[in-house]
Design a protein that fits this description.
This protein is α/β, with parallel strands linked by helices. The chain folds into two domains: 241 residues, Alkaline Phosphatase, subunit A (3-Layer(aba) Sandwich), CATH 3.40.720.10; 138 residues, no CATH class. The chain is built from 15 helices and 13 strands. The strands form two sheets. It has an eight-stranded mixed beta sheet with strand order 9-8-10-1-11-12-2-13, sandwiched between helices. Strands 3, 4, 5, 6 and 7 form a five-stranded antiparallel beta sheet that branches. β8, α9 and β9 form a beta-alpha-beta unit. α11 runs antiparallel to α12. The longest helix has 17 residues. 50% of the residues are buried.
Length: 399
């Protein structure tokens, strides 16, 4: 599909903005029967939906819960089943780590375990980043035979583990059981060639446990998303766009960098992200702007906090519209229903606004309202061709 799109792309001067709300979708609160989107007061998104074509997007397949990596790859037009990237690679690139061919990277969480070694908090209470920095210093002293061990802090409870050496494989299972009340899992080799790497990682985890015994609440580690650096088609080359990414969280910067977008330095707040968008408006054709607060509240199981995060986002919509984009897209990388306190498999609302979108009867940006939109329910990686068409960036297919 990407080769077909590449062959149809034509030059243009139109401006495209993709606003991605991490963990956008939700589920109804049992007490009210309304989801977070249906509960929130979203006058600006509702007004935009009334002028846009709306629908739902599914990121992987029915019933399959996407991670943030596959979810955003879908938004960028890459079939996440064809282009699979481990979370560790994205985290490493996001902090501008010098990841090299053959390195194996993993996303790490500091977590809390009880006296029996059972997980009581998968994120160690979201420790401050400065605490994470001190704890990664402890892990840097770990030595493993035949490989270099590299540990770098990311943000809050997150860190990156990189193993560097010959003959390593990223085909490893994760230590995170994604549940409380159970101990971390041992790493398993998913192919025979990964057996030695699995032994090394298990040895790292055991050494980390010893060094963190007195560091409660961050007294253990969880590792997931093992992978080596892949090669993906470059977003600017496929779509003929000068593309920029604006994201406060490192992983999303890493994903954008992996597909060839320019990653623009920005601040830690969404207000600063929007200011960065305004500052660089003339330099690019396409902007990916990431919003994290919705996912954070959903994963913590805080329904009201997610509602508040949605309402805060709504307040920034006029500032984006005032810039005059030719195409404006609002969607997300996956659902994070507060009642699940985790990623969900549910499709996510999407709206696509342009002069040529053919507005539909939808007047609210919610799951149920968008389900009746003219876009229907489409695979996420089919969104970018629609975006390009509305930007008048595609010629016709065939004679």
């Amino acid at each position: 599909m990407l080769d077909v799109i590449r062959s149809l792309v034509i030059p243009g001067t139109s401006k495209i903005v993709l606003l991605s709300l991490d963990g956008l979708g939700g589920l109804p609160r049992p007490e009210t029967g309304r989801s977070e989107l249906e509960t929130a007061r979203l006058p600006n998104l509702s007004a935009l939906a009334a002028e846009a074509a709306c629908g739902l997007i599914r990121h992987v397949a029915p019933g399959i819960t996407p991670g943030s990596g596959p979810g955003h790859l879908g938004l960028f037009g890459y079939d996440p089943l064809a282009y699979q990237v481990g979370r560790g690679v994205l985290e490493a690139l996001g902090i501008e780590f010098d990841l090299r061919g053959g390195d194996v990277a993993a996303r790490g969480n500091f977590c809390t375990v009880d006296a029996q070694g059972r997980i009581t908090d998968r994120r160690a209470g979201r420790i401050p980043t400065e605490v994470c920095v001190k704890l990664t210093d402890r892990l840097r002293s770990i030595r493993l035979p035949g490989v270099e061990v590299l540990v770098e802090p990311v943000q809050e409870h997150r860190f990156v583990l990189v193993l560097r050496g010959a003959g390593l494989s990223g085909r490893l299972s994760e230590t995170d059981p994604q549940a409380l009340g159970t101990p971390p899992l041992p790493v398993r080799a998913l192919e025979p060639a990964a057996a030695h790497t699995a032994e090394l990682v298990n040895a790292f985890v055991e050494e980390a446990r010893k060094r963190l015994t007195d560091a409660a609440p961050a007294n253990m580690v969880l590792l997931r998303g093992f992978d080596r650096l892949p090669e993906l088609p470059r977003f600017p080359d496929v779509y003929g766009l000068r593309a920029a990414a604006i994201a406060a969280y490192p992983m999303y910067r890493g994903l954008a960098k992996l597909v060839g977008m320019d990653v623009i330095k920005t601040g830690k707040t969404y207000a600063e992200e929007i200011a960065t968008l305004r500052e660089h408006w003339q330099a690019y054709d396409f902007f990916f702007v990431h919003y994290k607060d919705t996912d954070k509240a959903g994963e913590d199981g805080k329904f009201d906090a997610k509602v508040e995060a949605l309402e805060r986002f709504d307040g920034f919509v006029p500032a984006v519209r005032d810039l005059g984009p030719d195409v404006l897209v609002v969607s997300g990388d996956h659902a994070t229903p507060s009642i699940l306190a985790a990623h969900g498999w549910q499709p996510v609302p999407v709206l696509l606004w342009s002069r040529y979108c053919g507005a539909d009867p939808v007047t609210a940006f919610t799951e149920r309202a968008c389900a009746a939109g003219t876009l229907g329910t489409l695979p996420a990686h089919h969104l970018m061709p629609l975006v390009l068409a509305n930007a008048l960036r595609l010629t016709k297919f065939g004679a």
